[in-house]
Write a structure and sequence with these properties.
The chain is of the alpha/beta class. The protein contains 13 helices and twelve strands. The chain has two domains: 141 residues, Aspartate Aminotransferase, domain 1; 240 residues, 3-Layer(aba) Sandwich (Aspartate Aminotransferase, domain 2), CATH 3.40.640. The chain binds pyridoxal-5'-phosphate (PLP). This is cysteine desulfurase.
Length: 386
């Protein structure tokens, strides 16, 4: 039996890894897991019900981005959306060139798609970031060549929370006639994003990062952007992403997007306050600590800190014993290197880097959770430093 089951109350501070599905989302999905099970491509009534539910979710999601419903394509999540955007744009425009620009701190769904393309003969420029994890728009500008076909830079970083200058990069991409994709898996439903305001051509999101179900996401593809099919088969998603639709999942994502949009301003304000409270409390109560990422251009719920002379993995185990779920960096890196590549790229000194803890909040997080987490951090760091 794990320590969590023993103790009862769990303080969940790993919302960047995944979020708890909300009750309303589950309720919206339930009928589609039971009586409304029809395949959306069939002719009878059951199918029509599913079809309508699908298009309602598409419309809701489009609305949150100020996009057209026809620009939203459902996928199995963030990784698929990223793979589709990067690989298929690269393939479609290979006659123009085989050069792609990205950053060194992207999610592995982007980095490994780029690595794969390199094996196929593409060239990829991986841009450095500054000490705050920020990509410089000037560096993007300088990296653009005649044969560049795609720029892919994330909206908000999953480990250190930095919000990238997506608007400026998008403007440069437009000016230079290069397509621009952004991995907004962490940012969508956390901060307002309008594709009328932001010059982005493609955007990835994933439902389980905003209190929706796992295994469903979408790719926004601006009207007029030529992109080949990612999954070949039937005519679902205009033939671009074949396979019987995950109706319940899509309905759940639509509901989660609707709830996030409705509570956006208040949620952002509340989470930012709580986040700053957590950061300040740590900095005041625990010596020899660094805050990673940008102080203000930051996802509302992200706190990433590095404690000097502490082994991060040991600290996470001790936190877990107190019922606190935190993370060392990205959930996708478990078991790999001790120090995350993102933390390395920010240039965090080694005696700090190994003691990195990420705590990510959500609308379910309360002030008492923060107080308990800091108490546990303080006590366990004292133990480890002794
Ligand atoms: C979680 C995450 C992904 C992957 O999304 P999945 O839906 O889990 O495949 C991609 N990019 C970022 C920035 C993420 O945080």
């Amino acid at each position: 039996m794990s320590s969590i089951e023993n103790k009862g109350k769990v303080i969940y501070l790993d919302n960047a890894a995944t979020t708890k599905m909300s009750e309303e989302v589950k309720e919206a999905m339930d009928p589609y897991l039971e009586e409304k099970f029809g395949n959306a491509s069939t002719m009878y009534g059951y199918g029509e019900t599913s079809r309508q539910a699908l298009e309602k979710a598409r419309k809701t999601i489009a609305g949150t981005l100020e996009a057209k419903p026809s620009e939203i394509f459902f996928t199995s999540g963030g990784s698929e959306s990223d793979n589709w955007a990067v690989k298929c744009i690269a393939g479609e425009y290979k006659h123009k060139g085989k050069h792609i620009i990205t950053s060194k701190i992207e999610h592995h769904a982007i980095l490994n798609s780029c690595k794969y393309l390199e094996e196929l003969g593409y060239e990829v420029t991986y841009l450095d970031v500054d000490e705050y994890g920020m990509v410089s728009p000037e560096a993007v500008y300088r990296a653009i060549r005649e044969d560049t076909t795609l720029i892919t830079i994330m909206f908000g970083n999953n480990e250190v929370g930095t919000i990238e200058p997506v608007f400026s990069i998008g403007k440069i991409a437009r000016e230079k006639d290069v397509l621009f994709h952004t991995d907004a898996v962490q940012a969508y439903a956390q901060v307002p994003i309008s594709v009328r305001h932001y010059p982005v051509d493609l955007l990835s999101a994933s439902a389980h990062k905003f209190h929706g179900p796992k295994g469903v996401g979408f790719l926004y593809i601006r009207e007029g952007v030529q992109i080949p099919s990612f999954i070949h088969g039937g005519s679902q998603e205009k033939g671009k992403r074949a396979g019987t639709e995950n109706i319940a999942g899509i309905v759940g994502m639509g509901k989660a997007a609707e709830l996030a949009a409705k509570g956006m301003r208040a949620g952002m304000y509340r989470e930012t306050m709580l986040r700053n409270y957590l950061i300040e409390k740590i900095v005041h109560e625990i010596p020899d600590v660094r805050v990673n990422g940008h102080r203000t251009k930051r996802l509302p719920g992200n706190v990433s800190v590095s404690f000097k002379g502490v082994d991060g993995a040991s600290l996470l185990i001790l936190l877990d014993e107190d019922g606190i779920c935190a993370s060392g960096g990205s959930a996708c890196n478990t078991g790999e290197s001790r120090i995350s590549y993102v933390i390395k790229e920010l240039g965090v000194p080694e005696d700090y880097a190994a003691g990195t803890v990420r705590m990510t909040l959500s609308r379910d997080t309360g002030r008492s959770d923060i107080d308990a987490a800091v108490e546990s951090l303080k006590r366990n760091i004292d133990r480890l430093r002794d």
